[in-house]
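Reply to dn_fold:

You asked what the input looked like. This is it:
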Amino acid sequence: MDKKYCIMDMDGTLVDSMRYWDRLSPEYLISRGINEDTDELMERIKTMTMPEACAVLKQTFDLPETPQEIADELGEVMRGHYEKDIPLKEGVREYLEKLRSEGVTLCVVTSTAPPLVKVCLERLGIWNLFSFIMSCEEVGRGKDYPDAFLEAARRLGARPDEIAVFEDAFTAVRTAKEAGFYAVAVYEPFSGKWEETLEIADEVILDWREA
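and this is what came back:
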């Protein structure tokens, strides 16, 4: 990777949080008496913003709560994890510090709500390594659309082909690639579709400690 600008995803890429997200919505639905197979739906909403995902949950299962009420409840559960027990992936800090020492400009673009991002990255001590932290909520659409990546490129003052995007989710890797970015796929067992991701990524990281 020889780019001077990098856009980093957070969940599943920098931090080991996907195991919590993976069971969050299914457990919420079970608490509402809904025990259907939701694997396909969970894959579809994985790269959406929280408001988008909660709107889909409400519509699909005719939930009585508003999308905002659903988002607030799920957000509080995740806040507890971000505040206490979600760790950095091994080797992440060293890799980021190496890039910074080489003059690379770093930012984060994530589907997670800004308050949760801040509490997580500050606790883990890497908040200050990034020029800015951006949530997809700021552009109103998740990573199945290129809007967030393109807005980050604008803020970085660089063209997509000058920027590496690090992502674990197939949909996000595909979106970045199709928008002209250099797409780096980071292995995350909870993200799925790894074989498909390998076919389109420009570069692959299986383990940050070996990157």
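The first helix runs from residue 18 to 31.
Hope that clears it up.
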